[in-house]
From TrEMBL:
One of its GO terms (molecular function) is metal ion binding. PANTHER family: GDP-MANNOSE MANNOSYL HYDROLASE. Mg(2+) binds at residues 48, 68, 123. The lineage of its organism: Bacteria, Pseudomonadati, Pseudomonadota, Betaproteobacteria, Burkholderiales. Its cofactor is Mg(2+). A motif (Nudix box) lies at residues 49-70. It holds the Pfam family NUDIX. This is GDP-mannose mannosyl hydrolase.
Length: 150
């Protein structure tokens, strides 16, 4: 486990690799969380998370789905790969001046046919379901989330 100082050096010097989950329900609405943490604090964003060192993509997907959605044992094979995206932020997790954050994001889409997940409130203060057309017109939905629907 990296110290906060070591992780800030990583953020300063390299891109981070992450998985975003584009979760839709039977009505075609997309799950968004209101971000608690930097970067993108205070905006609506799809759930997701960083891939850890030596973690396989399958293990990362399962861990992120559990941590972000409360869905244990969800497999990457159950999702559709949507592509590779780049996310650039002028800030960072520690609010350290002059340190930007750069993510390389693997986006995966999945549809839930059962009841909506409750989610976890570690990274998000609340959750919201919006249609793609609804989220595209909102100013509080982050541009990096909107990019998945353009």
């Amino acid at each position: 486990m990296l110290t906060q100082s070591d992780f800030l050096d990583v953020v300063r010097l390299t891109p981070l690799v992450a998985i975003d989950l584009i979760v839709s329900d039977a009505d075609g609405r997309v799950l968004l969380g209101h971000r608690r943490n930097r970067p993108a604090r205070g905006t609506w964003f799809v759930p997701g998370g960083r891939i850890q060192k030596n973690e396989t993509l399958d293990a990362a997907f399962a861990r992120i789905a559990d941590a972000e959605l409360g869905l244990a044992n969800l497999t990457r094979a159950a999702a559709r790969f949507e592509g590779v995206f780049e996310h650039h932020y002028s800030d960072n997790f520690a609010a350290e001046p002059h340190v930007s954050t750069h993510y390389i994001v693997l986006a995966y889409a999945l549809s839930l046919t059962s009841a909506a997940p409750i989610g976890r409130l570690d990274q998000h203060s609340e959750y919201l379901w919006l249609t793609p057309s609804e989220l595209l017109v909102r100013t509080d939905v982050h541009e990096n989330t909107k990019a998945y629907f353009r």
